[in-house]
Amino acid sequence: MSTIANAETIGRPVRVVSLCFRDQPFHDVMRALDQEGARGADLIALPETWRGQSNPEPLDGETVSAAAKLARRHHAYIVCPIDRVEGGRRFNTAVLIDRHGDVAGAYDKVYPYWSEFDLTPCVEPATDVPVYETDFGRLGLAICFDVNFPAIWQSLAEGGAELVIWPSAYSGGTSLQAHAINHHYYIVTSTLTGDCQVYDITGARVLDEQGMPGGIHVSRATLDLDRGIYHENFNSEKRDQLLRDRADDVLEEQRLGREGWFVLKAKRPDISARTLAHDYGMEELRDYLQRSRREIDERRAHCGRAARV
User: Fold this and answer.
1) Mean pLDDT across the stretch 207-230?
2) Which of 93, 96, 131, 132 minimizes the C-alpha distance to 109?
3) Is pLDDT at 1 greater than 50 in this prediction?
4) CB 57 within 8 A of CB 84
5) Helix 175-183 crosses helix 150-158 at what angle (to 10 degrees)?
6) What is the mean pLDDT of the segment spanning 19-34?
7) Beta partners for 198?
8) Which of 193, 227, 268, 302: CA 20 to 30 A from 120?
9) Cα gap 69→206, rounded to integer Å
């Protein structure tokens, strides 16, 4: 069990808990949820189909209903994956329960693993990749085998995800790092293999730990969703002016010289570094890259027409 230390009143902190385990009794998992909720978590994540795939259940079944009661009791979001059945159809679903105990969303796995097609009924591949509005920021979900398909992670970025929770049957390792580097959101895992990883908006792995076999491993991280990452292109002079004008309010927390990136962070609780950067005309890295892609595609078409004239 470990904690990423952070100034929990500065920026836009979210306290995330990952429970990692396999084949634990239902009441033990509910007890761990209860305990972590009582500690003051904003969001608690459970692993992919942690109750197995022998008895699919609806959204209002035992698992989600029990988790929803604890979400309401402790005013916490919970990501509760289930093997879900609806009208005779089956999905591998990560259910997002809000602080009131209501189902705020249900992400259905877009890329089920091969063995899931052998179940009766089979797990159906979904198509939608939503991003959910929460009171701490924009949350995305992906599940296990989804890690191998970049289009899902691009969709989460285009939806504005700031944090992605990845429930899984396995750890994923550095394959997740590529998505954090390319899209600049936090990624937090919850696995049946008992290990948890947290990736930063820079792509750095800031937590990597595994519990002892046979129990429920608890990882805790406080993540500041107000930290912003920027490219030096078109931003350097604006950054320097911001840091001169507001030296007591914001700092350059990190500079990644080889990438040409830098990270801004608030220094005081009542300040938003990302808002200040926006006020100074700075464009966040993900927005810059998405805009560049769109505009270069438009110019590609224009240049192609001009070359044919």
Assistant:
1) 94
2) 93
3) no
4) yes
5) 30
6) 98
7) 188, 207
8) 193
9) 32
Residue with tokens 């993900």: 286
Q: Mean pLDDT, to the nearest integer, of 202-229? A: 95
CA nearest 103: which of 95, 111, 114?
A: 95
Which of 160, 287, 153 lies closest to 225, judged by CA?
A: 160
Residue 9: how many other CB atoms lie within 10 Å:
9
Sheet holding 131-133, edge to edge: 131-133, 138-141, 163-168, 186-191, 195-199, 205-210
Task: Answer whether residue 305 shows pLDDT above 80.
Answer: no
Answer positive or negative: Cα dihedral of 119, 96, 6, 199.
positive
Contact by Cβ (8 Å): 220, 190? no
Percent of the chain with pLDDT over 90: 92
Convert the pLDDT of each residue in 53-73 to its tens digit: 999 999 999 999 999 999 999
The predicted-structure confidence for 65-108, as pLDDT tens digits, reads as follows 999 999 999 999 999 999 999 999 999 999 999 999 999 999 99
d(CA 275, CA 155): 24
3-state SS string for the chain: CEEECCCCCCCCEEEEEEEECCCCCHHHHHHHHHHHHHCCCCEEECCCCCCCCCCCECCCCHHHHHHHHHHHHHCCEEEEEEEEEECCEEEEEEEEECCCCCEEEEEECCCCCHHHHHCCCCECCCCCCCEEECCCCEEEECCHHHHHCHHHHHHHHHCCCCEEEEEECCCCCCHHHHHHHHHCCEEEEEECCCEEEEECCCCCEEEEEECCCCCCEEEEEEEECCCEEEECCCCHHHHHHHHHHCCCCEEEEEEECCCCEEEEEECCCCCCHHHHHHHCCCCEHHHHHHHHHHHHHHHHHHHHHHHHC
Phi, then psi, of 145 in degrees rounded to 5: -60, -20
Torsion angles phi and psi, residue 118, rounded to 5: -90, -10
